[in-house]
Amino acid sequence: MTTKLEQNLPLRTSLCSRCDTEFVTRVHHPPIPLDTLQSGELPSQTETQQTLSFIEEEEAELFRYDEEISRLRRITGELEAQRLALHNRIEARRSYLATTRKIPLEIWEYVFTELCCTNSRYALTISPKVECVDAPAYTISRVCSRWRKIAHSRSHLWSSFSIDISNALPSIDTLLLLYIEKSHTQPLVIQLTDSYPLEDRDDNYFLEEDYAKALFGNNGKALFLALLSCMERCTRLDTSDFYRCNMLNHLFNEPPTISLPALHTIEVLAFSWGTPNYPQWFWDPIHTAPLLTKVITPSVWEDFDTLPWAQLTTLDVRELKGTELLVELITTCPNLVSLRIHEFIPEPHGPISTPVTSSLQNLAIGAEHSTPSSFDSIFAALTLRSLTSLELSSAAIWPSPSRDWPCPSLTAMLERSSTSLERLSISFPELGLASEAVTEFLKSTPFLTQLEVNLCGGLSITGRDSTTGLLTALNLSNPDGVLVPKLERLYILQRALRTHPEMMRLIVETVEMRSRQGLEDWGRIEDVVPLKALCVSFSPSRDSVEGLEDYGYGDESLAPVLDRVRTLSRGGTRCVIEY
């Protein structure tokens, strides 16, 4: 049986429609029928000789086909190469005329910096937990030669790493070494983490060596060694998520040498039961780092031999238990300028020493799960000669009647310290202000320039709401004299109180009186600083009375108030009332 194609003899293939060049098949023998092949019939001697002759002729013809196909492929390849070269020339001309060539180098640098180094983003992030390698500078450098030249010449684009060394990806240290090389002599920011699940350490690992091998994998040591090669340029080190730091001992037969001459900030991991379990060879260079002045830690442990506390100027603590530990901490850090405690937990204590410090300027204490009375022991124990900024906050809820603020111990501390407090922020949403206490408190802060108050809007035990009492105390006609004469900015957030036109008029009158024009009218422009901004927000706030662009959603009775607000704005004093 022959196919339709096989019956069309001779076979011709057109190679060129212009010159009618054809490839003509010279040999065409009939095929062996399919039923003959399937029958098992043996060919005769004559048929055998004929078949061998056909094979020889057809193999020669097959060679002709191969030669022609090779020739055509060679021609096609040449045409494709010429086409590609032409295409590249066109793209080059388009690139030459591209608008992006007009963008100044400084703009590209700004864009790349925003992409690689902002919004808490590290220049290189290696995280096998999410199978992620985020390397924006490396990606940018592979776009085009111009971007590559810009990226390679801006070392700060390569100068921060977040490295998860648990289960490190194969050969990932090569990418890290590239970043270290491209960062040149730029100061480095390094974060060390491990994402190996804490619960995975079970009875499967009887030996710590086996656990360390499972933790770091085959590439963890190479990755850590790459980091060690650049530690002398590290200025900020974050190990707060490096939970199995004690396992580092099993990576090395002998302790490695680390030097941290440029380190000025470290964020460490601390456990509630004591000192972080870093290997001693890791602690020693931290303890001797000559420029280390800032520490961020979840807690403060009683072992004060691990960090160079005496040279610290900034300390950020997530949780601190008891006034005794706070006093010991301040005593151990004689050069401390800024201290922030996010959660202070009061504890029973005996007699406490009352240190006097002349270095601490900024103090922020939160007690989100304790009442404001927990601050009393702190104020009673401390004397802060140089305090310029104080932040106090507590969101705790306790049964009424609530204790009104300011408490006498705070006023006593400020008077005892003879401090030049300039900025004060009080956030006690469940408390009200006692008018008499406010007057005494403001008398103790004559240098205050900024005051932020977040208090309850209900009536205090004196029957007056917090905002009314505070604004009345700021009146120039106050019989106790002009309080806080240097006050420039006042921010009030008052909860659980619906405002009314009388309250708004009181706010505006206070601002008018403390504005430049008002002080001139009262003859107090020489000894009282004009108020620059007063913002009052009654929660929940919906509308705003500020300028013409914000008006139109409030009560019509507020129109006169709005006119006065506009006049204040033109005179340089901003008045915002949200209600």
Automatic annotation (TrEMBL):
Protein name: F-box domain-containing protein
Source organism (scientific name): Moniliophthora roreri (Frosty pod rot fungus)
Lineage: Eukaryota, Fungi, Dikarya, Basidiomycota, Agaricomycotina
